[in-house]
Specification:
The chain has no helices and five strands. A hairpin with a 3-residue loop joins strand 3 and strand 4.
Length: about 55
């Protein structure tokens, strides 16, 4: 079972490591806005992508 996403959590996209670490900005159902180090603010559909939650940056 995965931890629910919430604003402030640090995550990585499993298929896009070049985006770097991202911080969750908002969560609306399966739509999660994440601000990534090297890709900027992106809308992720968590129905199709499972973000990796990080313990530390």
């Amino acid at each position: 079972m995965s931890m629910p996403l919430e604003p402030g959590l640090l995550v990585r996209h499993p298929d896009r490591p070049e985006w770097g670490v991202g911080q969750v900005q908002s969560v609306a159902g399966p739509r999660v806005t994440v601000n990534f180090e090297h890709a900027g603010k992106l809308l992720i559909n968590t129905a199709t992508v499972t973000l990796d939650i990080l313990d530390a940056p």
